[in-house]
Amino acid sequence: MTAFYDGKRCEANPRDIPLHAYAQIQLDVGTPLIAPEHITFPNGL
Hints:
- The chain is mostly beta strands and 45 residues long.
- 0% of the residues lie in helices and 24% in strands.
- It has no helices and three strands.
- The protein has strands at residues 2-5, 8-10, 25-28.
- Strands 2-1-3 form a three-stranded antiparallel sheet, with no helix packed on it.
């Protein structure tokens, strides 16, 4: 499993990834890895 946090590869255990408001977290299982997409959240969320 490969984890990305805000578009950057995260080497930490996925259980330790902080769940902050507007954090963009992607978990990839297997290959190939999919490049993380940037998501723009609408105002008010």
